[in-house]
Structure formats: structure tokens, C-alpha cells
Amino acid sequence: MLSAFNVSLVGQLKANEILALLLAPFTFKVNDLKDYPFYRKIIYALIALLLFQFITDVFVIHNTAQNFLRGWAGTIMSILSFVVLFKLLDTEAAVLTFILWTMIRNIVATDDIVDSEMSYFKFKIVPIIASALQLLAVYLYRRGKMSLMLGAMVVGSLLCFANDARSSGMLFFLSAGIIWILSRNFRITRQKLFVFALLGAIVFEGCYVFYVNSVLRDGLGGGHSSSQLQRLDNPYNPFELLMTGRGETFAAFAAIGDKPLFGHGSWTKDKDLKYYKIVLSYQGDEGGEFDLQKADAVDRYIPSHSVLLGAWISCGIGGFIAVFLVCWYLMKMAFTLVVKAQASPLYPVYVMLTVSLLWAFLFSPFQHLRFSIPATGCILMNGYYDWLYGFEDDEDEENEDEPENEKEPYLTLN
After folding, report:
1. 407 contacts: CB under 8 Å, gap ≥ 6
2. Is the pLDDT of residue 216 over 50?
3. Residues 6 or more apart whose Cβ sits within 8 Å of residue 71
4. Residue 6 φ/ψ, nearest 5 degrees
5. Nearest alpha-carbon partner for 75 in 364, 259, 268, 307
6. Within a domain: residue 288?
7. 3 state DSSP class of 6
8. What is the band of 413 on the pLDDT scale with cuts at 50, 70, 90?
9. Phi, psi at residue 13, to the nearest 5°?
10. Which phi and psi angles does 397 have, rounded to 5°?
11. How far is CA 62 from the centre of its chain?
12. Which DSSP letter does residue 124 get?
């Protein structure tokens, strides 16, 4: 709820981040670094990211104080958020309360990014739908109403597709599919994984063709969806749609190629709009979202729309490796929960958060490392350790009191 309020301090800090600053000294425990290995590794990786930011901003590109302080503040707040939320989101009740207040916050407050009818649904309504679906899914899953839960997720997915929120619709649909497949009690092997992947690709392409026909013939999703598909050489190729919808991600590779070792620095401006012109070429239209005259009238930063690539742009290959490690550790825990934690009432939330987390690292702005990934990561991390210690209790592990030496089980394929 407090995230709706901003405070001017080294850029814009949200009120919930001020609260994290105040709570961090009381929630941080040195023993947690020993007792929870993944928690320790994530904190250390973020500290490494901060170090690479310092090297690039101070010694390589000699960034302005305003820019590098904003960049460093974002990483520091990510670290503090992990520290605080790891302690606060450690029970089922805490997670559900957090989701509920997140939904209320999105109902009451509207972000500045909401400036059109299309963005209103994507950035105002979709977060409310996501929170509501998570709460409803837990309620139905706990009562064994699997079909009703999956039906609600599919309805939410279709509602998003119908209103030009394709990525959210895909995430809801994919989450429902994962839950349905794993609820069949399949024993996953490499051979079965290949078969599922092949069948999934066929089903996906079939659904995608149906979606394209519905947009081009019936106007599904409104004028924006239709105009995007019409300017593609082959609208039935989903990769072309991904490229035009996430052109910033592909433009990021050009920025990385220019300065691969140390990056461009924190909050570096795209002064001559070199990279925005690349985005515009992927957009395939003139005078659209990335109109050059409009872009030239305000400060524009190097686009990336990817947490992983954004780290590389800001502070080079070292920053990319640090953020990749954060992603790797979180996804290890998340995939283990998806495959093995069906007994948890929060299982539907774990699946939905796993899919959205992977999408965030690949195709969301770098600022998600500060604003959304800590909360998602801490819910998954606490879920993982709840599952792990429950697993050890069931197996009567003798070394239960020495988690620093634990052999952590991950998802393995036979």
C-alpha cells in the first residue's frame, strides 16, 4: 500500500522503501546468511552488482553524481528489500495478506504510467486481476476444486488477451497448463519433457493462429493489437510479434555491443537516440509510440526492457553475471517448488510467481530488480525452505540442525 507514495530522496523512493530502510537493522540476522544458503548467495550477488556499478560509474565512464547515486540507491534498496521481506513474508498468512494489500493498493492508487485506455487495462486492471486470481486460486486449491481454479485462470487469461494484455494472458494460461500437467502425477523424465515440450509448442502455435485470426478478422484486443499484427511480414510467426512488442530488448544487444565490458553506466541517456531508432525499426511504424520528435523533446535513457540485459548495459558483463546469478538461484528454488510442492496451499501462487519471475528477468525493465523481484523472490524463497525443512522432517534427516551443510535438493530429471 505504501508503494503508492513517493519521497524525494536520491531520486524517488517509495514510502515502503523508507519503511524497509527503518526495518532492515531489526530484521537482518547474521545467522540467516549461514542458515539459508540461497539467501546468502542472492545478497552476495547483489553486493557484487553494486561493486560493478561503482567501478563503471566512478572509474570508467565518470558518471554524474545524480545518475550514479540513483543507480546505486536502486541496488541498495533491492538488497534491503530482500532482507526485510525475507523475514516478513515467511508464513502463508503473511503472503496472502501481502497479496491482498497489493490488490487494494492497485485499486486505490493509479501509477503515472497509466495515460491511455490501453495502458489503463495493462497497468491498472491486470495487476488487480493477478492478485485476485492468486487469492482465489489458493482458496479453491485448498478445497480441492482444481477444475474451478483452472477455469478461473483461463478466464483471466482470455480477458487479458481480449484487452491487448498478451503477456499477462500468456502467463496466466501457461501457469494453468503447468498446474494441470503436474496435477496428473506424471513422473518427469527427459523423454517425457521432450514430448511435453513438443506438444506444448503445437498447442501454443494453434492457439496463436486462432488469436491472430481473431485480431485481424474480428478486431480482438482493439486497434493497437490489430495495427501491430498488420505491420508484420508474417503475423503467424510469434517471434516477429515478440520482436515488435519487445523491441527494446533487442535494441539492448546493440548497446551491449558498443560497451560490452563495463557498460554505459547508471541511468545513461540515449543522447542521439541511436538505440531508440533501433527500437523504432522493430516497431515498424513512423510517428507511433517511439515518435522521434517526441523522444527528442525529453531525456531518453538507453532502452533495454530486460532485467538481465539492463544490468549489462549499466555496468557491463560483471553486472550481467551478478544479476544472472540472482536469477539462477531464484529459479532453482522456484522450479523445485513447481515440481515438488503440490502439498502447499500456496502452490498456485508459486507457479504463477515462477512464470512471472522468469518473464521479468527476460523482458521487464531493470527497475523490476528493485520494485517487484524482491517480494516475488522472498515468497518463493520462504516457500522453498518451508518445503525443504518439511522434506527433511519427513525423512528424519539427522543433520536437520545444521542447514549450512545441507545438501539442497533441486529439480532433477531422470
Report:
1. none
2. yes
3. 53, 57, 63, 265, 266, 267, 314
4. -110, 150
5. 307
6. no
7. strand
8. very low
9. -105, 140
10. -65, 135
11. 31
12. I
| CA distances, 49 to each of 21, 55, 127 (Å) | 19, 10, 29
Nearest by Cα to 314 from 78, 31, 33: 78
Q: Is residue 173 part of a domain?
A: no
Q: Which domain holds residue 44?
A: 1-89+250-268+304-393
Spatial distance between the Cα atoms of 95 and 146, rounded to a whole number of angstroms: 21
pLDDT at site 239: 83
Note the pLDDT tens digit of each residue in 40-49: 999 999 999 9
DSSP annotation of 404: G
Grid cell digits, residue 288: 507511433
Counted domains in the chain: 1
Whether the Cβ atoms of residue 309 and residue 360 lie closer than 8 Å to each other: no
Asked whether the beta carbons of 109 and 4 are under 8 A apart, the reply is yes
Whether 144 maps to a domain, the answer reads no
Cα angle: 376, vertex 379, 385; to 5 degrees: 135
Q: In 183-246, which ranges are continuous DSSP H helix? A: 190-218, 222-230, 238-245
Among candidate residues 95, 130, 75, the one with its CA nearest the CA of residue 369:
75
Rounded to two decimals, what is the model's pTM? 0.88
Contact 159, 121 (CB under 8 A): no
Report if residue 118 sits inside a domain: no
Q: Which residues pair with 6 in a beta bridge?
A: 14
Residues across the chain = 414
Neighbours of 132 (CB within 10 A): 17
Retrieve residue 52's grid coordinates. Answer: 560493478
- Tell me how far apart the alpha carbons of residues 409 and 171 are, in angstroms, rounded to a whole number: 26
